[in-house]
Specification:
Helix content is 32%, strand content 25%.
Length: 392
């Protein structure tokens, strides 16, 4: 028997669109789910824009005050797609009201906020998830499967890059509804929270806890006009960040992110090198996972020399993660489908009683690493992250 689930989405930007699409499509592609999400309310400060967005996506109602949304008895789920500086108050109020809570990444402005949010959700006992959607890319999920099968063996190296180029021009303003990611008062940080949070979550999902980091950051354009005030002010976010990492398993990591890599639009890559094999992934070519196998898992049998070499796996077969819910083999899925997959995992987790990951506690660990990276960049010293475990 189907169970209706009334959802309120807070925010109508890029992520609001991605999430609204997931709620509308999840039951079409995952018909076995008991829960049937309904877009009950769209909440945003600008009533006219909220109404336009709600009409486009089929929301039943709009609100301009998030407190009124949380007070509504007909709302079951609060989905936070608003800027980072709103996550803390929204999540805690929703938890105290007994709502399910889903939240965009990064979880919070800093670790202290994340700890309070996590405590509130765990006290409420309500289902929760943070939208690190890249875990639901079939190729990345397959990478996780290969690691779990022992096909890469003892890990030695993990390296990640996340490169974009959209803020190079000095006349790009900061702040306001469209460019709040360039305003530290709203975003908390620059590429570290926005981009490297994804890289860190993926790295720890595949390779375990990051325990120590040493980092450096740079802000290339020091002053930008603020969209709302029209005044030039100092830029306090990090435009670029690079850091070295040590994992709990003894392996070494390198991470780099920037918005100043001319020609790179959303270049998100990782490579893991182990004793028995290696994995490589590029989000700009997401239907493929590159795999090098040196030794058969669970044995000392080396792959025959004339068969060694990188293989490119086209992750569209029904046996690949998530693909049995989509098209026939050979047909790829895209960015928006990762949110559908994430939502399906979340709902299935509620139904089974085995919560889907990453929940708030898992995202708290990623926030700890982000904060340690920024602290290290300020001090120039190796910094402990405080991450002792990582829920997969």
């Amino acid at each position: 028997m189907s169970k209706p689930l009334n959802v309120a989405v807070i925010g109508y930007g890029f992520m609001g669109k991605a999430h609204a699409n997931a709620y509308k499509k999840v039951n079409n592609f995952y018909p076995e789910l008991e829960y049937r999400p309904n877009l009950s309310c769209l909440c945003a400060r600008d009533a006219d824009k909220a109404k336009s967005f709600a009409d486009t996506w089929g929301f039943d109602s709009i609100e301009t005050d998030w407190r009124k949304v949380i007070e509504r008895d007909d709302i079951d789920v609060i989905d936070i797609c608003s800027p980072n500086n709103t996550h803390h108050d929204l999540a805690i109020a929703a938890a105290e009201a007994g709502k399910w809570v889903l939240c965009e990444k990064p979880l919070s402005m800093d670790t202290a906020e994340a700890e309070r949010m996590t405590a509130a959700l765990e006290k409420s006992g309500q289902p929760n998830m943070v939208w690190f959607n890249y875990r639901r890319v079939p190729s990345i999920a397959l990478a996780r499967q290969l690691v779990e099968e022992g096909r890469t063996g003892k890990p030695f190296h993990y390296r990640a890059t996340y490169l974009q180029d959209w803020t190079i021009a000095e006349d790009v303003p900061q702040g306001g509804q469209t460019l709040w990611r360039l305003d530290a008062a709203v975003a908390g940080s620059g590429v570290t929270g926005d981009l490297l949070a994804h890289s860190i979550d993926t790295a720890m999902w595949l390779n375990g806890p990051i325990v120590r980091v040493v980092a450096d950051t740079e802000t290339f354009v020091k002053q930008r006009v603020h969209q709302e005030t029209g005044k030039s002010q100092a830029v306090s976010i990090d435009d670029a960040c690079m850091f070295l990492a040590r994992f709990a398993n003894g392996s070494m990591g390198t991470f780099e992110s920037t918005r100043y890599a001319r020609g790179r639009k959303n270049y998100n890559t990782f490579e893991l090198n182990g004793a028995d094999g290696s994995l490589h992934f590029d989000l700009e070519d997401p239907q493929y996972l590159d795999f090098y196998e040196h030794k058969k898992p669970g044995s000392d049998q080396k792959v025959e020399d004339h068969l060694t070499g990188w293989r490119r796996i086209h992750t569209t077969n029904f046996e690949h993660p998530y693909m049995d819910h989509w098209w026939v083999p050979g047909c790829t899925i895209g960015y928006e489908h990762t949110f559908v997959n994430a939502l399906a995992d979340f709902l299935a987790g509620v139904e089974s009683g085995k919560p889907a990951q990453p929940d708030f506690r898992s995202a708290l660990q990623t926030q700890k690493v982000c904060d340690a990276v920024l602290a290290s960049a300020r001090s120039g010293q190796w910094t402990e992250t405080g991450v002792e475990s990582f829920e997969a």
